[in-house]
Every structure is written in structure tokens, then in C-alpha cells.
Amino acid sequence: MQKEGYYKKAYSVADEIEKDLEKLNGESEWYEMYSEGVMFLKGLCLGRQRKYRESNKYFKQLVDKKPTNDNFVDWYKSNKENQIGEFFNVTVIVLVSIYLLSVVLSFTNLTFTILENVGVWALPIAFVAWIVSYIWQKIIQKQRLKLDVNQNKK
User: Same domain for 51 and 92?
Assistant: First the structure.
């Protein structure tokens, strides 16, 4: 948690640098390079704060500008993996909790028919969600490998 505060500060500094860089737009040959560096820094800071969707806005722009830059591509793909993983992890936790709650309620003789009906299906759905998460992450990794192989051929 302490490091997250540093990334917030670094992001605000990068934001100030970006504002100053805008003054150099069209006046310096180094503007593009510095601008990309600031975008990378902002994306990195947001990624470290687990704000993957916001972070990928920057990395998507960077990948569009420089699709052969492995660093930009790797960050973009890992953010996608983390974003998908986070969604499915929450889904699995909620479904397993519902299942466990329905099991506990079945021992207490309390009847909540909706919870009991959902509880029966919660564990299998949680298992399917976990498998889907795993498959999506593997697909994203394969795309990265495929991209690396295609770039090496050029």
C-alpha cells in the first residue's frame, strides 16, 4: 500500500510534465519521444495501482504508435490479463460464498428458496468461471508469443 502512494505522486508529476511538454509541441524534435515516455510512465503508474483499464488507454495509444515496441505490447497484454483475472476472481469468490452460505443455511433449517436454488448452481458456475479465466489468460499469452514470432520474421 505504501508503494501505491508513490505511484500516485509519480502519476501527478508525469501529468505536470505532460502539460509542460505540450508547450513544446511542434517546436522540438524530441517532443514525440518525450511524449511517449510520459505516456508510458502514466500507464505504468496506473497499472501498478491496479487501474488496468485506465492504464491500457495509454498503452493502447503507445502500441498503435509503435506496434514493434515489446515493452508497450507486454504491458498492454499483461494489463488485459490482470483485468480479466480480477473480474473472474471476484466472480468466483462471490459464487463460492453463495454456495457456502447455502450449505450453512441448509444445516440451520432456515429456508431461503432463492438462495438454495442459486446455491446449487453456484459452485459449478464458479468452476466454469475459473476455467474461462484461465483460458482467456492463456489466449492472451499466445497472442503475445505469436506477435513476438511475427516481429522476429521481419
Answer: no
- Residues 38-74: tens digit of each pLDDT: 999 999 999 999 999 999 999 999 998 998 888 898 8
Distance CA 15, CA 8 (A): 11
Are 15 and 56 contained in the same domain?
Answer: yes
Q: Quote the pTM value.
A: 0.69
Rounded to whole angstroms, the Cα distance separating 92 from 139 reads: 20
Helix (H, G, I), strand (E, B) or coil at 39: helix
Are 58 and 94 part of one and the same domain? no
- Residue that is written with C-alpha cell 471476484 in the block: 90
User: H or E element: which one contains 30?
Assistant: none
Number of neighbouring beta carbons within 10 Å of residue 76:
22
**Full residue range of the structural domain in which residue 13 is found:** 1-66
For the chain, the domain total comes to 2
Helices (H) and strands (E) in the chain, counts: 5, 0
How far is residue 88's CA from residue 94's CA, in Å, rounded to a whole number? 10
* 7 close to 45: Cβ distance less than 8 angstroms: yes
